[in-house]
Amino acid sequence: MKNSKIKIVLDFLGIAVGAVIAAFAIEEFLVPCTILDGGVVGISIMINNLSGIPLSLLTVAFNIPFLIIGTRKMGKMFIIKSAFAMLIFSVFLEIFAPMANATNEYLLAVCFGGVILGIGVGFVIKLGGCLDGTETVAILLNKKFKLPVGQTVLIFNIIIFIVAGFIFGFDRAMYSLLTYFITSKVLDIVESGMDQTKAAMIITNDSKEISEKIYQRLGRTVTIMDGEGLVSGKKAVLYCVLTRFEIHELKEIIKTIDTSAFIAITDVSEIIGTHVKKSGTLKK
User: Helix, strand, or coil here: 103?
Assistant: First the structure.
């Protein structure tokens, strides 16, 4: 119990650090050069430039509806961590806003801003939260319509960058798109290939309880196979496919049921078939 509490505290500290790093990248590199991030933050930067409303207030205001939408579907801890990350992010946007800009050179802003932003957002996601409400919507669409999370977020952001191009000029839209790709690549490094679909193989003695929990909390069906360890004897082998945002929740589920379970998580390049997700009654 004590170790669990310490881990939660460390998770929140890590999320806070990630949110501070992301806020620094936004205010010190991107905003001064009118370079947009994607999602809610990108929309907020546009409105901030046009209206003068503080960026910190806009990010909070726009993210609240997405958190409310995701409350029933995403799991309590994910929402708590995301709300915490968004709050810290908004506070430090306000703190960094009056400080001297790190650079006014566009290429430096794109490269260093993208890298630093990727590190910050990567920490937040790796520890079970998110900074942008559009990611929550993308996950919900994935759960309901099987739309890929990464592609959905990319489509949202391309639309935002096109709108920004008409407002601020297409050179800014191209800089913003380049920043987005740099940020995504850094996220890949921080989160170990987080943009790809993941497959989890779990070797456990509690297959029934774990598979039901995965279905209830993540909406993912599980394939159950018989296995036998050279030393440990008879075991169940569970296999399921999930998104990068669900890996942390999967670990939490397994940890609370079987601390001795063995988990292997790998990248999936392509999925063919419709058996990954299911609604209705759980079938064995």
Answer: coil
Helix residue ranges per DSSP H, the chain: 2-25, 39-51, 55-70, 76-96, 106-126, 133-145, 149-168, 170-191, 207-218, 247-257
Q: Are 93 and 6 in contact (CB under 8 A)?
A: no
Which residue among 147, 173, 191 closes a domain? Answer: 191
Residues 43, 125 within the same domain: yes
CA distance 235 to 204: 6
| CATH assignment at residue 235 | 3.30.70.260
The tally of CA atoms less than 13 A away on the side-chain side of residue 69 is 14
- Same domain (yes/no): 49, 148: yes
Question: Which of 131, 165, 191 finishes a domain?
Answer: 191
Return the closest-CA partner of residue 124 out of 40, 44, 16.
16
Per-residue pLDDT reduced to its tens digit, 142-191: 667 766 666 777 888 889 999 989 998 999 899 999 998 998 888 777 76
* C-alpha triplet 257, 263, 268: angle, nearest 5°: 130
The DSSP code for 241 is: E
- Whole-prediction pTM: 0.69
Residue numbers of the domain that contains 39: 2-191
